[in-house]
Amino acid sequence: MDAKFPVQKSFALTGTQLFLLLTGCLSAAAVTIDGLSGRSPYGLESLTLPLVSAAALTAAIGSWAVPLLRRMKTGQIVREDGPQSHYSKAGTPTMGGIFFIPTAVVLTLLLGLGCGWSGADWGNALAVCLLTLGYGAIGWLDDWQVLRRKSNKGITPRQKLALQIGVGALFCLWMALSQPWEITTVALPLGLSLPLGLLFFPIGWFTLVAESNATNLTDGLDGLAGGTGAIAMLCLGAIAAPVSPSLGLFCASMAGACLGFLAYNRNPARVFMGDTGSLALGGGLAAVALLTHSLWSLVIVGGLFLAETLSVVLQVSYYKATKGPDGKGKRLFKMAPLHHHFELSGWSELQVVATFYLVAAALGALGLVLR
To answer: In degrees to the nearest 10, what's the CA dihedral of 237, 240, 243, 248?
Structure first.
């Protein structure tokens, strides 16, 4: 191992240990949040039950779905300009979001039957579930085109963006028609709030598209998007539950589904979530934040996704700004998104993922404190 990075010699976590550590921490966090909220950790509206149930159900379904994806030859096509250590990942089944996203959605609706939700709770839950499945369908189409063409290029960026904008527009239209003024205020720290009025809807539209792409960019290492997505979902669920119990349950179910998926996606990954999973995760996060006045909280708990996106924007902008007569520019990072920069700086994949988990957990805790 390169002597320049001695820290890696003491970094002995395996993918399984990392998975178990994250599972234990998230389960303990869910029970703690339930206790602080005065709810029984075994009640249907708690965060613990959907978290654990979704994790177990997804892991069980995965034992059948992952071999099926392999038999269907859904092998990942690796970027030629990516880190060389990723070449060994070629052929690993992708499109894993096709089994863990629907699991979380169905479980949310089934548990909702026992919670005595109001009509508004059901409306919010159904809308967010449909939005999540809609973005998952866009991701599936992109993944399918990648596999069909046997390259790492799926549908064109314009086509993907147009579909994301279209699904986001339908969701914003539903919000405008069903609850035009109830949700147009953004909660800020110290009990403050920011009324946005009609400006809320174009901001919400942008948030849906931006957040889905941000989680998509984060999905680049074994277990990275699944783990950080689980943390962000659980923390946002705790913030959303007092405003909308149904959306708190949705977030906890989605966090649990991510954990169950990590049973197969931890390093070395046996399956990748693909755009099918990553676009759906981001869309779900944004939709919950929009309906629970939690846009500010989303910026914090999803700060890691924001950093990944900004690294790409800065990389492209700096390259264009420094482009010389030869048509070549300078790079701000060794590679973007940000996780690849650390990889090419000498960090192991597990070290990057573990560090990003810790950052995501710290941001999640900060979001809970400042809600």
So the answer is: -20
Asked, for residue 332, whether it belongs to a domain, the answer is: yes
Give, in order, the Cα–Cα distances in Å from 169 to each of 206, 333, 365.
Answer: 10, 34, 32
Residue 275 to residue 194: CA distance in whole angstroms: 33
Distance set, CA 82 to CA 66, 204, 221, 339 (Å): 25, 33, 11, 11
Q: Which sign does the torsion angle of CA 248, 298, 356, 211 carry?
A: positive
Lookup: tokens for 187: 């909660």
Number of domains forming the structure of the chain: 1
Residue 313, in any domain of the structure: yes
| Distance, CA of 310 to CA of 213 (rounded, Å) | 12
Residue 195 backbone dihedrals phi, psi, to 5 degrees: -75, 125
Q: Measured between alpha carbons, how far is 120 from 34 in angstroms, rounded to an integer? A: 23
Amino acid at 261: F
Residue 45 included in any domain = yes
Could you report the per-residue pLDDT of 197-218, keeping only the tens digit for each? 889 999 999 999 999 999 999 9
Range of the domain at 52: 6-369
Query: How confident is the model over 125-175, as pLDDT tens digits?
Result: 999 999 999 999 999 999 999 888 777 677 899 999 999 999 999 999 999
- C-beta of residue 125 within 8 angstroms of C-beta of residue 109: yes
Tokens 């939700």 sit at which residue?
117
